[in-house]
């Protein structure tokens, strides 16, 4: 059972000193527990925040502990009344090949309906974030202009497609021509902005000439500022994340244009997807239906080998991935 342990808290980007891969025995299930053979680990930007020793919505991962992560796999031993050997579960198994757990907060999944990685992507935490963030926090309405950053990623790509399904004009912001072409040609976005090669202010004006009703913020920083400057009256800004700042070693400046919220009677609202768990089932049903109808496309970028955890994780910050980033750590 290979495990990735947090060895030292990183300053800036995680490096070789941050984690250690160790070998442990395959755990045994105690009463009320299952052992899950983990096929896929979810790599999420939030994991960077969980490594900081500061107050947040979850306690930090402790030094010497298995790195926290979402996962999906197969039950290989059960002393739990609700689960049997051969069931597939998704939950919080951490970066390791086998997890013993009481399965609180885990869900049973069916690998015959969609592939296992989809259960930690579009039908898992990132997809739920997109769904509740754009519908309940963003409160999008038909005909509105919706701008999304991190648009080619796990959350952004789904938030944008849901906004299209609901009849909005959708413009995505992503790094590079390939991702921008993907947004328009594959996902049906109305416009795309390559923030690495375009002036972001001018590009938002070009793509959203009437302004932005809803800006779904995944990145923070200069892009948030540019979006605020283009907000329409009664605009909403779901604050989902700020990946541009997660590895910052300097203080965070801004947003400078926050008074646009005042002028436009706008709202910026943060949310944490863990608060919506009781409604996941309903959302997953609706999203599964959209997928079956071909209205919602799910894309996973799967890499292999628990030894490659760090290099793969860093792709979240370099942008060298498309869709939901997943690490396969055990064969089926
Ligand atoms: P993604 O799949 O979108 O991967 C991260 C992407 O961020 C990269 O592919 C890269 O895309 C982009 N990026 C990285 N660095 C920068 C930067 N400096 N400036 C702009 N873009 C950058 O990740 P997720 O979809 O899983 O997560 C997206 C956001 O949602 C994160 O901020 C995350 O923390 C947040 N989140 C919040 C939750 C909540 O409950 N509030 C729950 C889940 C996620 P590109 O190539 O386009 O630069």
Automatic annotation (TrEMBL):
InterPro entries: ADH-like_C (IPR013149), ADH_N_2 (IPR041694), ER (IPR020843), GroES-like_sf (IPR011032), MDR_fam (IPR045010), NAD(P)-bd_dom_sf (IPR036291). GO terms for molecular function: oxidoreductase activity, acting on the CH-CH group of donors, NAD or NADP as acceptor. It comes from the Bacteria. Signal peptide: none annotated. Coiled coil: none annotated. Residues 12-327 form the Enoyl reductase (ER) domain. The keyword RNA-binding does not apply. The keyword Oxidoreductase applies. Keywords: Oxidoreductase. This is Oxidoreductase, zinc-binding dehydrogenase family protein. It comes from Microscilla marina ATCC 23134. The lineage of its organism: Bacteria, Pseudomonadati, Bacteroidota, Cytophagia, Cytophagales.
């Amino acid at each position: 059972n290979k495990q990735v342990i947090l060895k030292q808290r990183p300053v800036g980007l995680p490096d070789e000193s941050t984690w250690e891969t160790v070998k442990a025995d395959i755990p045994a299930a105690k009463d009320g527990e299952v052992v899950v053979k983990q096929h896929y680990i979810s790599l999420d930007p939030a994991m960077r925040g969980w490594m900081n020793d500061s107050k947040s919505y979850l306690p930090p991962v402790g030094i010497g502990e298995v790195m926290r992560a979402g996962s999906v796999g197969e039950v290989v031993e059960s002393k739990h009344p609700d689960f049997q050997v051969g069931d597939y579960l998704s939950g919080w198994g951490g970066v390791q090949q086998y997890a013993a757990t009481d399965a609180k907060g885990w869900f049973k999944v069916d690998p015959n309906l969609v592939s296992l990685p989809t259960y930690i992507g579009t039908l898992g935490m990132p997809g739920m974030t997109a769904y509740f963030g754009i519908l309940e926090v963003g409160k999008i309405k038909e005909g509105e202009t919706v701008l999304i950053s991190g648009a080619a990623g796990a959350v952004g790509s789904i938030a944008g497609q849901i906004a299209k399904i609901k009849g909005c004009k959708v413009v995505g912001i992503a790094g590079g021509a390939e991702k921008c072409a993907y947004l328009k040609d594959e996902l049906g976005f109305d416009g795309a902005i390559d923030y690495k090669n375009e002036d972001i202010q001018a590009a938002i004006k070009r793509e959203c000439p009437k302004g932005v009703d809803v800006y779904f913020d995944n990145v923070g920083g200069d892009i948030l500022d540019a979006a605020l400057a283009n907000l329409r009256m009664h605009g909403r800004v779901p604050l989902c994340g700020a990946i541009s700042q997660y590895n910052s070693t300097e203080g965070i400046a801004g947003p400078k244009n926050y008074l646009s919220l005042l002028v436009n009677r706008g709202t910026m609202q943060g949310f944490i997807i863990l608060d919506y768990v009781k409604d996941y089932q309903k959302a997953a049903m609706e999203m599964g239906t959209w997928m079956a109808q071909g209205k919602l496309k799910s894309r996973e970028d799967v890499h292999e080998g628990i030894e490659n955890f760090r290099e793969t994780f860093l792709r979240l910050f370099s942008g060298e991935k498309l869709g939901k980033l997943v690490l396969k750590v055990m064969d089926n």
